[in-house]
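Hey, I was hoping to borrow your eyes for a little while. A protein chain has come my way and I'm curious about its shape. Take your time with it, there's no hurry, and the full record follows here:
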Amino acid sequence: MNTSPETTRAPVPDASLHNGRSQGSRFGSWQEHHGWSAASSLRRLASRPLGTLLTIAVMGLALALPLAFYLLLGNVQKLGDALGQSQSISVFLQPGQSAQQAQLLARQLGDRAEVATVTVKTPQQGMDELAKMQGFSGALHTLDDNPLPYVLQLMPRAGASADALVQLVADARELRGVDLVQDSGSWRQRLDALLGVGNRVVLILALMLALAALLVVGNTVRVDIASRSEEIGVLLLVGASSAFVRRPYLYAGIWYGLFSGILAALLAVVIEFALAAPVAQLSRAYDGQLQVGGLPLWLLLAVPLAAAALGWLGARLVSAWQLRKAV
């Protein structure tokens, strides 16, 4: 039989071979075996560096993909905020409407529950805005009079439902003296819907890749247990419990998950740095209004812990199945 040094130096199984020990002594033996199992499994991973690094790399890449997509979706959300979070509604009156008629319509629309504020933009204000735009100032001097109409800008109340805003737009179009109603928030609603789909896709992708990482750990532990089946058989014959035998493999799963989670977090940080320069250029194009952020620190710290728990689960399921076959 090919017995490894780690197995021969393992502490003797606790409860099954030492029934006369006190409760404190049993706890000390249990604690000692946990420490030995953690160190032994780490040494065993270090003894085969290539296989260990490949396993950690595969798991790290699988866990980094959901982080990358989460980062992308978060920044698309911020881009939408920079382009205009406000779902304002512009009501263009028919040419020739007077200031009194514009104020009357503004009061009428402002009395609605779903409207927070109404701003009246005069034709002269619209002309001044056009004059500031490049290429328009020369053309405006050729006009004999101002052709622009009064414009009412409606700001919806926070928390107003989408159905209420749709009804508001429909009612505004039916008002006398209204020529055109432009809902600038409709694109935002479409973007929010697309982001909702994207968030669901990221969740499904994260679950699938987490399952893939669990299977990678499980298969690695299965191969390790199969290669040491004779040693495990001897331990079981001398009275070792299943928990005693599988403990080193559980720690191996924890190490795999922990290191792969650290790698995934590092890859996510690398992606953030790689995108820093083009994102800064994009932000300058929007006069600094685009505030792009990275992944939160709590998420980067939680990934290795969650990956370690995932590795433990994969090792636990496979080792329990393998040991039932060995009994």
About this structure: The chain has two domains: 31-83+190-326, 87-184. The two ends are 18 Å apart (CA to CA). Residues 242-285 form the longest helix (44 residues).
